Amino acid sequence: MQAVYFTVVAAILYLVSNWVVERLEIAAGRRFEYRSLLFFGILLTLAMVSFYLIRLYTGKP
Prior knowledge:
By secondary structure, this protein is mainly alpha-helical. The chain has one domain (2-58). The chain contains two helices and no strands.
């Protein structure tokens, strides 16, 4: 069941990260040159935190 949680959360994090990058670009009024690095940084941060929480709450190390 833990694998299902990881898969669903990963898909949601992908969409959230993309939305955040788009909002930042709209606020700045331009497309960022290194958009993919910004996207990766946001996605990695969110993934590390949420995957840790999944492991914590499912009780598996």
